[in-house]
Design a protein that fits this description.
single chain; about 375 residues; mainly alpha; 6 strands; ABC1_dom; transmembrane helix; Kinase-like_dom_sf; membrane; ABC1 atypical kinase-like domain-containing protein
Length: about 375
Amino acid sequence: MDYVKVPKIYWEYTTPQILTMEYVPGIKINRIKALDELGVDRKRLGRYAVESYLEQILSHGFFHADPHPGNIAVDDVNGGRLIFYDFGMMGSINQNIREGLLEAFYGIYEKDPDKVLQSMVQMGVLVPTGDMTAVRRTAQFFLNSFEERLAAQRKEREMATAELGFKKPLSKEERIEKKKQRLAAIGEDLLAIAADQPFRFPATFTFVVRAFSVLDGIGKGLDPRFDITEIAKPYALELLKFRQAGIEVVLKDFRKRWDRQSRAFYNLFRQADRVEKLAEIIQRLEQGDLKLRVRALESERAFQRVAAVQKTLGNAVAAGSLINLATILYLNSIRVPAIAAYVFCAAFSVQVLFGVIKVKKLDQREKLITGTA
């Protein structure tokens, strides 16, 4: 890329402990005053930084995992060029995860929650559980509100009254009210998801999230109006257009259709067995051999609180009994058992403290979910 400079590595002078690179002088990307004196476009530099990482991650699957300002510099070549230093920490993304990321882009672009969930399963981020209803509803909620939130952000920037285009700050009460509305809208589904724990984030994603967090901070330092989502969106659309025009998508679509038709033809000869099996299940339900379990999230939360309270009370009773026993033994000069009783009493007292904290957390979570916090 014309706007990226990767220093040459001198392998004959490089060891597992020392990385010897070509000398390429530049100005640190966070030295705003020096960049202005150099005459480069800071807004364009912020966009270049994000686009270069999208290219590294999505196109090549190999990226610089430590992009702090000390490792990114700028010179005046080609109107302002990014120079990356220090390749001691690199991240790699396998083909399966890269394809999953692109499929996730497709799903978000088409507002298809099933495609998004399928891509997350492909990447290993989501582990299929018995009941995926709550996960799907949550995905649908975020897809429906994604465009609305982006439009609201653009509107806020347009209506900003500050000279540099800062968004009008919300009052404390308005921020609390918005947070309550969001939590009340998706609280139930998020609680169901957390109970099943279906998400497993690969270690590589930690480096990806960290890299984009650092880039977001660098971008805001270069340009107060910097918005990483606005920069990533056109790049993602270009990827979508490229893949939509490729033979790979046509073949993949043909393969899916062929598999669907094969399953339909195979199932055609199994309908009689399925009807018989369905009748058998209905008969077992009537006889009481099968039981249906209905999940009530409100009852589950209430049972969790009752169980925590009961355990805390039990520990408190045990602690009280032990301290009485220890005191009696101590007064009767039976020292060793008395000290042991005091130790056990202290242990139960700590459990009581943890139990009280857990009950308070459950109460706070209940208030957040119901929107009464």
